Amino acid sequence: MRTMPDLTHPVAPGGTVGILGGGQLGRMLAMAAARMGLKVVVFAPDRDSPAFQVAGAHIVAAYDDQMALQRFATQVDVITYEFENIPGDTGAFLASLKPVRPNPTALAVIQNRIAEKAFVQKLGIGTAPFASVTSEETARAAFATISAPAVLKTSRLGYDGKGQRMVRAVEDVIAGFETFGRVECILEGFVDFKREMSVVAARGGDGAVACYDIVENLHGDHILRMTLAPAKGPQRLKAEANKIASRLLDAFDYVGVMAVELFEAPDGRLLVNEIAPRVHNSGHWTIDGCTVSQFEQHIRAVCGWPLGDATRHSDAVMTNLLGDEVNAWRTHAALPATAVHLYGKTDARQGRKMGHVTRLYPLGTRPDTFER
Amino acid sequence: MRTMPDLTHPVAPGGTVGILGGGQLGRMLAMAAARMGLKVVVFAPDRDSPAFQVAGAHIVAAYDDQMALQRFATQVDVITYEFENIPGDTGAFLASLKPVRPNPTALAVIQNRIAEKAFVQKLGIGTAPFASVTSEETARAAFATISAPAVLKTSRLGYDGKGQRMVRAVEDVIAGFETFGRVECILEGFVDFKREMSVVAARGGDGAVACYDIVENLHGDHILRMTLAPAKGPQRLKAEANKIASRLLDAFDYVGVMAVELFEAPDGRLLVNEIAPRVHNSGHWTIDGCTVSQFEQHIRAVCGWPLGDATRHSDAVMTNLLGDEVNAWRTHAALPATAVHLYGKTDARQGRKMGHVTRLYPLGTRPDTFER
Fold this sequence. Notes:
Two copies of one chain form a homodimer. By secondary structure, chain A is of the alpha+beta class. Chain A has three domains: 16-110, Rossmann fold, CATH 3.40.50; 129-189, Dna Ligase, domain 1 (2-Layer Sandwich), CATH 3.30.1490.20; 195-362, D-amino Acid Aminotransferase, Chain A, domain 1, CATH 3.30.470. Helices cover 27% and strands 27% of the residues of chain A. Chain A has helices at residues 24-35, 66-75, 88-95, 104-110, 113-122, 136-145, 170-179, 235-251, 286-289, 294-302, 329-333, and strands at residues 16-20, 39-44, 57-60, 78-81, 130-133, 150-154, 164-167, 185-189, 195-203, 209-211, 215-220, 223-229, 256-264, 270-276, 314-322, 338-342, 353-362. In chain A, strands 9, 10, 11, 12, 13, 14, 15, 16 and 17 form a nine-stranded antiparallel sheet that branches. In chain A, α1 (24-35) crosses α10 (294-302) and α6 crosses α7. The radius of gyration of chain A is 20 Å and the shape is globular. The termini of chain A are far apart. At the A-B interface, α1, α11, β16 and β17 of A face α1, α11, β16 and β17 of B.
């Protein structure tokens, strides 16, 4: 059922935003809020959370610590989050105390890959073919429908490729289902895509939608390495991405920033791969390439401010600094038209997102090839 | 005597920057440092300092509290400041404990208007004509040299037009000198300038200099209202501003960002009005108009990082929000290509700098006329 966006609690300058999660996304959200004259309280379980360093206040507690959540809620005017794995009970409990944006209903759908894909398809938007696996019998049926190669994933969200495996025979599906502890799984048909892309878009409390330019994403080992903004391609591509994002935002009655990961199929159609109900790594370039970044846009939306202008003023290439790549900060800092963003993390574990660099180019001059 | 820049203490990501002063400049410096993965400790006497909200740690104490200064110094790797009225003893004491950048020598010269102007002239750079007033006798001599109208100011720095008055007769000079408590004063000849301008520039620990584009500043009641970036005018103007800034930075053996306020004389020459040994209100547009802002540039310099690219990617118009003008935040936030920056101050006193807005324009398209 469609409800009207909640505009009864706009958060004016001087008000306080509560952020669940203290990683780099929470950190950049907190910095955007500060720029807008808002105070921030970050709630996270890890004592060393990067976002704590830039927030006026923080609470260290587990996400199921009701006493701490209650204390958190009393200190803030609105609550948002930096990641989609918030326990459902946490969202519901907080929503009983203060506005939680985006609304926990969207979160609940997105937390289940089957519900998410069904939701997307119902809107007439394409996804990879998929089927549910809850038993040996449904495993056989799913494999008969979805031709190999395919990917078996737990239907609940996992992190960075955990809880998923490639399958080529029905035995692989059954074995995977056993390995994942017989929890509900999704079998996804493999999409032979041309490019991986994404669109980051926001919906305000007044129902207005603003989309950043569609971008192309380059991955390595399931981790985003580079984002090219904007994606090269016909104008139609951008229009289609914006239509997909707008339709999803409206259908979820969503308030905040959402990222939609897309596959460009060989025939040029865009298929939804995954929805992230939050700011997204592929939107980091907007800090330097747009007047209003995805982080400020999200805070504007959840605080009931007018959405900002999402137009890009420059082309951009964003490169993640993973693990010890961060040691090259000095080299990056000396490059022309380059902004270096580091997240204040001490332990440069392999593959860990330690920072990113954004190189700007005048509009229309982004190069096509890059040193990786 | 010229010393080599101190490059023995670069501050790498994870290190800590100490900032003296907790106003909006300290706040924006702290946010820039955070973006670079640096920690921040802010030292300021006011419990409600806006910079505290965005810094991982802060110390509330008076600038002459040696115990507190010592504690501050032990917590940081380098010390910088957001304002030029730091007591000389404070700078000297801190410099005995940790690197203080820019160096306190430059600060000492700039804190005295007579020493400052003499320093500038010695480099062959023009200023308004001036003379020292330390007695009735020197008052008469000064007035005989500097023709009316002129401005009498205390030679030590005052705030926002305090400690200064217009004079038209020698009696005004003598009366002003009495009113200011017979402290040393400077009598400055009035410059019939065409425009007020400024150049914000940085010098790194390696002696490299980077200048932002020269800008035009519009004042009202001695307070900056708008900055137009870049200033319109021949290429020669920019070259001359950069030459002035570079010469001053080198002469002071300066490390950090400096702003030079300039008058454009009727004959097109640039005269130095005042030097600010710090980031400056007329450089706020660089947050949105350049890849690396004046705030990040300053932190880069004082931490021994390579200077960033000071090229502007967009034209910009920066408008200060003074006093209750901040109440229009919502209107500004809804404008195209507009970034709103609010400083987290609660009391919107008349004339108080509460925030600023920056409107971006594609390169070369900044309009010439504005609604004030």
